[in-house]
Amino acid sequence: MSTKLRQLLQVLSGTSLIGIGISLNYLANLGLGPWGVFHDGLSKTLNITYGRTIIITGIAVMLLWIPLKQRPGIGTIIDIFLVGTVADLIIPNFPLSENVFVGLLLIFCGIILIGAGTAIYVGGNLGVGPRDGIMVGLEAKGLKIGTARNIIELLAFLTGWLLGGLVGYVTILFVIGIGPVVQKVLPYVDMRNND
Predict the structure, then answer these.
(1) Contact, 32 vs 153, CB < 8 A?
(2) Residue 99: which region, alpha, beta or left (left: phi > 0; alpha: psi -120 to 50)?
(3) What is the largest CA-CA distance in the chain?
(4) CA of 54: how far to CAs of 38, 39, 180, in Å?
């Protein structure tokens, strides 16, 4: 397999996994992850779908790249549109969980999929998504990538909470869970130093 094809496949599969993970989190009905809280508050405010809110947020967050000197790539564009599109394809077609144990299983799977998906497409080295551009920019400034992700998740949560997004007792699992998954998976799929 050529390097370019592998990179494209990593970006497409990684962003798709993130979209699925976000959908599982939403369907768990036990509270949302930090960005989910933000998207939920914003989607209620703007009266648009959850997935469209993800897309609009992605475009707006790219403005925060300027001070971090991050540059978009094809992976950035794919991330902006594919994650929200996947969420809008899944969420309306499945019922919200009414069982706590099923909900917890969906949350656990969602954290794994979002963390692994993030590592896979960041490692594809075709440009990162808007939220992860901030994470990678902070990594370049000396923070561990897991720590950078946790900081971003916490800020998204606080902003979303202020916007009236749904907060539940599992929200904290996302704050502390995604960063370590990214850090564990990334070394196996990282093509950023293969130029």
Answers:
(1) no
(2) beta
(3) 48
(4) 9, 6, 23
Question: The tokens of 181 are what?
Answer: 């998954």
List CB contacts of 93: < 8 A, sequence separation 6 or more.
none
Q: Give me the DSSP letters along 63-126.
A: GGGGGGT----HHHHHHHHHHHHHHHHHGGGSPPP--HHHHHHHHHHHHHHHHHHHHHHHHTTS
**Which residue do the tokens 């019922």 mark?**
95
pLDDT for position 100: 93
Q: Which residue has the tokens 């794919």?
A: 78
Per-residue tokens: 31: 């509270």
| C-alpha pair distances (Å), 101 with each of 21, 28, 30, 95, 174 | 17, 9, 10, 15, 17
In angstroms, rounded to a whole number, what is the distance separating the alpha carbons of residues 98 and 50? 20
User: What is the spatial distance between Cα 144 and Cα 135, in angstroms, rounded to a whole number?
Assistant: 9
Provide the pLDDT for residue 102: 96
Under 8 Å between Cβ of 42 and 53: yes
Q: What is the pLDDT of residue 194?
A: 63
Report which residue type is found at 25.
Answer: N
Q: Residue ranges of the chain with pLDDT lower than 70?
A: 175, 194-195
pLDDT of residue 73: 86
